Input
Amino acid sequence: MTTLNKLEAIRDYVIPPPAPAVQDWISAQDVFNLYGAIFPKYRGKIYLSDAWYKITTISELRRFIRWSTVDKYPYIEEIRDCDDAAIALTGQFAMYPGWSGFPTSLIWGSLYGGHAFFTAIAWPSLEDRTPTPYHIEPQNDLEIAEESVEDMELWLLVV
Output
């Protein structure tokens, strides 16, 4: 591998993909209402830190998640486990200009006896701009079914 190829490989690892070209705004109240509908008994455990958030399609957020290397780190019980992966992916969104400001976060609850994972509000597509909650396992980038999340006890959700 040439030096130029090595530099390109490093660049691809440390520079995130371009920010979404199409985005809009969603209010904290709308975000709260979406999560409150999933967790009506636990509305007091949902915390929102901003009055407004950016919103884009889930495919755009998945593009960033695919770029992220959080899923490449090994699981080490009590050292690098689910909460660390959820915090790391949420933190990556927060640290890159163009990707910060979206309603992305970690959610922690009784799923699988106690689990933390990544959650975000996004549109299903550019044609369907209905704000929708998505839940993603940051350790493998796969989506967690809404039905699995609806039945869990919510411990904490900070957006």
